[in-house]
Amino acid sequence: GQNIDQPTEMTATEGAIVQINCTYQTSGFNGLFWYQQHAGEAPTFLSYNVLDGLEEKGRFSSFLSRSKGYSYLLLKELQMKDSASYLCASMDSNYQLIWGAGTKLIIKP
Amino acid sequence: IAGITQAPTSQILAAGRRMTLRCTQDMRHNAMYWYRQDLGLGLRLIHYSNTAGTTGKGEVPDGYSVSRANTDDFPLTLASAVPSQTSVYFCASSEGGTNTGELFFGEGSRLTVL
Q1: What are the Cα distances from residue B59, in Å, to A10, A52, A67?
Q2: Residue contact B40–A101, C-beta within 8 A
């Protein structure tokens, strides 16, 4: 079956670094996506990885290991506005997204 | 401002009633999607449309129907609402083809069925 696993909740301190992990099992693979969703709002696209390695975009980076079915989202210099849920999604062989339940990130001062 | 507009933003509905959630996009995207989001679960695809005139079933299509008469509009209809359809519904669009992963979402429609 298809499955995406990510932690339910994480807590970090303002100014610190946090890594949110995601493991996936999908029928075929056409990329791994990360989205950010603030409470009561719509998800917004953060990153896309299809090749192994690290993609850096400002304070946010995303890593992929296809052989391990593993990705992580790295957030640096955390700000209070980074408090949100982070959704991991894998694209299967039919180009459909399979979504994880999301990781709620709580930032403390 | 370009984007996706959903209506209504919130609705309380009696069980057994018919309800249509509206979704309009002005980005000329080929693909459109309806998801529901429930606490503790990932986004679940209800129905999708790869291009105007075509629709397909997602993971949880039962009790829902869609139409795609043109590029811009993709309404979702609940023929006879049941309490298990209480959820937040998101409409989304993407360029389509193999570039379907970067989705643009509407602000959501919170539906409560009593």
Answers
A1: 28, 29, 27
A2: yes
Q: Does any CB of chain B come closer than 8 Å to the CB of residue A30?
A: yes
Closest by Cβ to B100, choosing from A42, A95, A98? A95
Instruction: Tell me the residue ranges of DSSP E strands in chain B.
Output: 4-7, 10-13, 19-25, 31-37, 44-49, 56-57, 64-66, 76-78, 87-94, 104-105, 109-113
Query: Which chain A residues contact residue B104 at CB under 8 A?
Result: 45
pLDDT tens-digit readout, A9-44: 999 999 999 999 999 998 889 999 999 999 999 999
Would the CB atoms of B43 and A43 count as touching at under 8 Å?
yes
CA distance A26 to A19: 22
Task: Give the β-pairing of A9-13 and B31-37.
Answer: unpaired
The vertex-B61 CA angle with B60 and B64, nearest 5°, equals 130
Give the pairing of strands B109-113 and B87-94.
antiparallel
Q: Do B45 and A4 make contact, defined as CB atoms within 8 angstroms?
A: no
Cβ-nearest to A99 among B43, B100, B102: B43
Partner-chain contact B42 A101, CB within 8 Å: yes
For chain B, 114 residues long, the average pLDDT of each consecutive 10-residue run is 90 97 95 94 93 94 97 97 97 79 93 97
